Amino acid sequence: MSTKTVWTIGHGDQDFDALAAALTRHRVQTIVDVRSEPYSKRAPDFTKAALEEFAASAGFGYRWMGSKLGGKPLATAEVFATGIDEVVGLSRSSQVVLLCAEANPVHCHRDVVLAPALVGRGFEVVHILADGAAMPYQEHLAI
User: Fold this and answer.
1) Among 91, 111, 95, which residue's Cα sits nearest to residue 103?
2) Residue 136: which pLDDT band, with cuts at 50, 70 and 90?
3) For the whole prediction, is pTM greater than 0.85?
4) Number of domains observed in the structure of the chain
5) Position 72 in a domain
């Protein structure tokens, strides 16, 4: 049985076209927005309404799940588990990416909270970096 992959990406200061190119490179089909507050003053392409429109026009699915999987504040354990279940379900029929604002995954809840939960469900998690390169998630050492 092969391991299913869930991707993550942070939009940082790039525009949607740059992000879409990276997602296409990694064959992503569905963007799961895990920002608690789906807007950005610095990156207007990533307000929720604009992102929904850009995603649709570029052929990506879009779902906002910040109320369940956002990092500020973290949802209750039950709500969080429901969100992870939804990502698992989506990943059965689509290549999924978890989108947040922070470009560097190690400074984001994608790496600290979401990745371990998905790894615990048997998934491989791969972070897409600002340059489009892929970096597999590695469990942090408790030193």
Assistant:
1) 111
2) very high
3) yes
4) 1
5) yes
The DSSP symbol for 73 reads S
Q: If you count DSSP H runs as helices and E runs as strands, how many of each does the chain have, helices first?
A: 6, 6
For residue 78, what is the DSSP state?
H
> Could you give the C-alpha distances from 95 to 5, 31, 65, 72, 91, in angstroms and in order?
8, 9, 16, 25, 6
From the number of C-beta atoms within 10 Å of its C-beta (0-12, 13-18, 19+), residue 87 rates as buried
Question: d(Cα 3, Cα 76) in Å, to the nearest integer?
Answer: 28
Q: What CATH number is given to the structural domain containing 105?
A: 3.40.1010.10
Residue type, 64: W
Query: How far is residue 53's CA from residue 55's CA, in Å, rounded to a whole number?
Result: 5
Phi/psi at 12 (5° precision) = 55, -130
pLDDT digits (tens, 9 = 90+) for 62-111: 999 999 999 887 778 999 999 999 999 999 999 999 999 999 999 999 99
